[in-house]
Amino acid sequence: MADLFTAVRSRPLKTTTTSDDEPGLTAVRTSNLHQETTLPSAAGFPKDSSDVTLPRSKDALFQIRSPEDILLLFRSEPDTSHLLATLSKLSEPGSVGDFNFFDTGPLQTRITSSLVNDILPNFWPTLKAEEQLLLAATLRSLTGINAVLAKLKQTSPSGRDRISDNGQQVTVLIDCLTLILSGNDTALRLSHHADNDQTELTTKQHLMARELATLLGSGKIVSIVAQATDTVKLDHGMPTWLAKGTDFAAWLGRNIATIYQSLDGEIDEVAMRAYGAQVLTKALNIGYPNALLWAMIPLLIDDDAQMLGYMLHSLPMHAKKQLLEQLLRWLSSLTSSSGIDVEKDLENVPSVMPSIFGFLNAVVSDDSAVQRHLQIFLADPILSSSLTYPIRQAATSALATIAPDSLQDLLEKLMATFSARLFIDHAPVLQQESIAQTLLLTAGYLHRHNPMAVLVIARSSSHMQGTSNRLDASGHRARWLGMVVAMAVSSLIDKGGSKMNFGTDEVQTEEAEWYMGLVTAKGDIGDLARFRDMLLKTVSQSTNTHSKPAKKQAMSSSINGIAVFGPARPPRPAQTEVIGEKITELVEEDSDEDDEDLKPYAKPDSDAEDSDEDATLVNRNKARPPVYIRHLMAMLRDDESHDRFQLGMQHAARLIRRKANFGKEVKDHAEELLGILCNLQDPFFTPDFDELKLQAMIAALLSDVEHIGPWLSRQAFVEGYSIAERCIILSALGLGGRELAGFKNEDELNPTISGTDFASTRLPARLHATYTAEHSTSTKLIDTASRKIEDQLMQPLALKAADVTTAHLNAVKVRTFSSRMEVERTKRKAPANQLAKVFGPAFFVPLLNLYQQELAAYGSRSVFSSTQIVLTTFLRTLALLLHASGPATMALPQITTDFWDLLLSLRVQTITILPVLEAVLFALLTLLEVNTDKRRLAQEEAKKMIETQTWVEMVFERTGGGDGAMVGGGGEEEAKVRSLAAGVLIKLREVVEEYQKELFGRVIDFLYLTARLVEPMPIGLPLVGNLPVYVWRGSTLCSRCKDLVLRHLTFTVSTAPPWSCETFVEVEVGCQSFDPSRNAGLCNAPDAEQKVEEAERQ
Length: 1098
Fold this sequence. Notes:
The chain is about 60% helix and about 0% strand. It contains 51 helices and six strands. Helix 17 (about 370-380) crosses helix 19, helix 34 runs antiparallel to helix 35 and helix 43 (about 890-905) runs antiparallel to helix 45.
């Protein structure tokens, strides 16, 4: 029973109490009597006093006794100092008992998941470079890399239609992964974490090493990072080497070389060789062999090629064959890029070839499997033709040096292939030339080693028959190769005048002599160090040469600032010589004497933070950017610390947007945060305060539109706010809704850089706005947006009017085909409109209801009625939101009716106030533009259309005289109002004309059909021109339907003949008294069939 209890002791904390503390309470702390590990508060990092003071419970959790305490600390929103100290402790193996964080296990996985999901998105943007390195070093393990990749794959946005994408989170994850994998010894350090510096590896650690090799050597990292980068690069433009296959392969090659360089006996060499072989085997299939070998081979070449031997011996059989093939192709690309010509004499081969011979000797030596693969490679015409001649010579020389007995078998295979009739007639010339060259080289080396073997092969029937087949071939090149090979082989085995000589001019050329000289070619083994130096020099030159054109190529994908899709335009011809008079520089000898009168520039002032001589007065605890929303709210409430308040304002919008899609932290604190922002004042004259405040409010609004939209709308009508604060709230609603609809303009929402103007007598910004007539910052952005929409709505009307006035020039109004294609090239698919779903319940209905309640309660004393700037901003906000929502707005007919009633109710109040009148007309123009269903608008809103037309015509007439009857404007304002009124009238006329076309078109169609098919019987007066209304003989219509004929003419033909009473006529308003069985119709008429036939013939 005693084992179930733990000895504890309680002691009072030494805390300073104030007079408000209750005297009966004493703060105590419970601690374990056993030895505990207390994490120091410093740990090499300064204490962050800028953050909010943690509660005492969190200080208790900071006592690290076990890994569970670390996990609990990470999940309890620690401050920066505690986090950095814990990471420093966690990176040291054995600092928390026997717990190894870099091992694999359920507890390590939970801690890593908390680091990636909770700590990394919150703290990474605010950490310094060395602190980011510490966090990346903590995640440098198999579990950490997998967690970051999984989070990156999950976070990468799948499209552009989200409310706020995760581009910033993707950037954070890619930056962290780049730091985790950076370095040429990353794979080695990860393997050290896996084996925990043990001399004997367990089965679990072998599995970890294999999984680590699969992760690094496969293309998983490249594919995930490349997909994430392609998704967000249009917005963030962050190039990273992890997304480029060549750069990643080069990094992998350097890490593989580092693994083999570390075989110094301190760790299990067999396990490290196996680990390196696993990584290399996977890396050979990544798809970038040249980049891999360029980075790996120079680091593995030493004086005795020992590391190359380690690498080859540790590889499996199939990997050896694959590595050999890629090595030969890589060396071929190396020699071809050096300008080596395969048809020149050996004297023209660069002096580096002996080093390549020595390198291939080192690769082939002491490995029979590699020698066998090399022999098969040289005998295959397809594979051999992919190599340059110097590499084929080096490979043949290596076989002759290491395994001379294999040359006879190789020569027999080459002779059989070269003499085959099928190969002569159908093989490409390049393959025949490569086989001929390899055959002559092999014959020469074999003759020096075993002359009798060459004599036997040359006297065989296969060689004789092959020469005969070559001479009988139809191709000139095939015959020529047969003659040259036969003469070269004969020169080895025959003497004097018995040597074969065809005596033609074809075999007397320089090329023929070069081929015949291949049997005497020799390959000298050179120094490997020279080959290594050449490779390193070439790598450095290629890096300097090819680093700049990539940026230039990336800049050519746009025309006039617009993204272009399709083939790039050809470059313009460059000017290569100077045209015109040359400029000659005149240097005066006595210029130094004239410069004595010039005053030098004054030295720049020193930093204010370091100007104090007393080191104790320097502020060492500088404010840090906020990490959590609660930290941000505390910084915004701080009216005593200048640095904390301004830092909070500068990072508010970025922090809110970064965490909008990350958990529920922003949603849980959105109302409280917006309450602070709505009442926020600037106690320190912060630059661009209103814009920063507006950005933060927009970001908070977009985090939860359906809930925050109505709440923020209510704040605009709450008592206690100033006019500027109400305008900022309305601007946040309008601009936030436009961003939700896809009309985001980052340039206008970003703060402008202050302090770039020259000195002048201009007042400070806070006073200049007060004493001038400029628009205040609270309404500047929403006014700018409304001006743009006005221009967009009025431009088509102006163009249409211009077309009418220039109708006599229609013949020359031709749009070229190329210009249409240019426009199509730059078109992009518009993103989904998210505002159309929530405009009514989240924005329009709350604003309209609250406005009506405000007027009902206060009447003309309301700020929305007595202050024109508030009313103007209110109307422009509604109009902007309706325009951004578009024709797809849910419940658009009801919104149209309510908004139209609101605008008509302001006719009398706004007739003499130009700014408000302009806002009303702009709202009317937007309303008519959004409602694309003109027929519904004409049928349901006919009364409002007539009232609007009458009122707007009066406004148009009153603003044309310029008599100054309007308040708040002059000539430009009246001209603007007049143009908006004209636009509204044109829109109303378009609605009426379109409905008339549809209505009268149906009437004419009905009259035409009935006049042809039945005998006319006029009913009532003519309705359209001089045409009477016709119905069928023997009328089957009741009096109600006859009235419909006279008033609405709603009949339409629906089916093909022959018709019946039920199908010939459809009445949109159903006739209850229509009974075809009692009334004789067209189908019961005696001559109905004849009249139908006559109508069809006509």
